[in-house]
Design brief:
The complex is a heterodimer of chains A (87) and B (269). By secondary structure, chain A is mainly α. Chain A has helices at residues 4-23, 27-46, 52-55, 61-86. Chain A has a single domain (4-86), classed as Methane Monooxygenase Hydroxylase, Chain G, domain 1, CATH 1.20.58. Chain A is elongated, with a radius of gyration of 14 Å. Chain B is mostly helical. Chain B has helices at 2-9, 14-26, 31-44, 46-54, 63-80, 89-109, 116-136, 142-149, 153-163, 173-178, 200-225, 231-238, 242-268. The chains are: A mainly alpha (87), B mainly alpha (269).
Chain lengths: 87, 269
């Protein structure tokens, strides 16, 4: 189970890597990186109540969930926009 | 009273009025006095705003609306003008008034909802342009603006094509540095998009996602370390011991440290 900070750290790293991959025309690999972030967010949201980090912060869980879903939606639309060209 | 105020500011140019305004702000002068100074600056530049607004009448927008938009640019110029720079206020204000009227017309004529990534891009480009102008006293070239935004020239050109504000930048640096109302860029001379690379839209949208995640990260870190509450207080609120709080924080710090230092350690091995 990833805590929120680890989730974000890994997600940012993967997204930065995806940009690098797109820039060298490695679209499939770039898409894989984005897909992995979406999966990580899904996994986290399923078990958000188990995150020990949230126990010691005042962050609003419902608001946090919405914001992560917003990020996920943005990334999903990125994939949609790339797929027609990638296929 | 009004006459006394007029006498007080008579003969002062824009730069002197701005200097007076800055001093008054620093000294904590009353808000009514600050308003008087701002009013005087606006009054002295009414003609400038009108003359720029008239140049946009072919947009079909009423002159009064264009002037109103121009005033926003003027007030931004009053707020942000840097006296230490070697730029005349009127030059800086013209640039911002011009930009604000263009934004007004573009927003007014937008037929479709502007996507978030375009809005974010517009904001970043606008800030970079204004900062450059403040620093250098002239509009940036494509290359200079691209460097400030940390993107390639071809990516910037692609962004600007969608943004319809090409009149702010030019590849003709010498001409634009001397012309306060520079003409539109000749698109034929701009390099085409690099089809092999990542599109600017794609890159910007991923960067927005990163930015959103980073904002959450900042919020969590602030919540963890900067709320001014002691570990005992937090523990009491949550019904757990201070030692548990302390251990959790240690783990978090360790994880953060690994994320920050990890790549460098790997690269030096």
């Amino acid at each position: 189970m990833l805590d929120l900070l680890n989730l974000i750290g890994q997600a940012i790293e993967n997204l930065q890597r995806s940009i690098e991959l797109f820039e060298v025309s490695e679209r499939d690999a770039g898409l894989d990186q984005i897909t992995s972030v979406i999966q990580q967010i899904d996994c986290y949201l399923e078990r958000i109540d188990e995150d020990p980090l949230l126990e010691i912060t005042t962050i609003d869980r419902a608001g946090l969930g919405e914001r992560l879903l917003g990020v996920k939606g943005e990334l999903a639309s990125v994939i949609e926009s790339v797929l027609p060209n990638a296929l | 009273m009004k006459k006394a105020k007029d006498r007080q500011f008579s003969g002062m140019n824009n730069e002197e009025l701005i200097r007076r305004l800055r001093q008054a702000t620093d000294e904590g002068t009353s808000s009514s006095a600050l308003s008087s100074l701002r009013e005087e600056i606006v009054k002295q530049n009414v003609g400038l705003v009108k003359s720029i607004a008239v140049g946009f009448l072919n947009s079909g927008e009423p002159l009064d609306d264009l002037i109103q938009a121009g005033y926003i640019g003027l007030l931004n110029a009053v707020a942000n003008f840097d006296l230490a720079r070697n730029t005349r206020f009127s030059t800086y204000a013209s640039y911002l008034i011009n930009g604000e009227i263009r934004h007004y017309i573009r927003d007014k004529h937008a037929m479709v909802r502007i996507p978030q990534w375009v809005q974010v891009t517009n904001r970043k480009v606008k800030e970079a342009e204004e900062n450059f102008f403040q620093d250098e006293g002239r509009p940036p070239t494509i290359a200079e603006l691209a460097a400030r935004l940390d993107i390639s020239e071809s990516q910037l050109v692609e962004l600007l094509r969608g943004r319809e504000v090409m009149t702010y930048v030019s590849i003709d640096q010498e001409r634009r540095s001397t012309d306060p109302n520079p003409p539109p860029v000749d698109m034929e001379h701009l390099s085409p998009r690099d089809e092999g690379g990542v599109s600017s839209e794609l890159r910007m949208r991923i960067l927005i996602a990163i930015e959103q995640l980073a904002e959450i990260q900042q919020q969590v870190i602030r919540g963890l370390f900067y709320q001014g509450k002691s570990q005992a207080e937090i523990g009491k609120e949550l019904g757990i011991s201070q030692r548990q709080i302390s251990r959790m924080r240690e783990q978090i710090l360790q994880a953060m440290k690994q994320q920050l230092v990890g790549p460098y350690e790997e690269s030096t091995e």
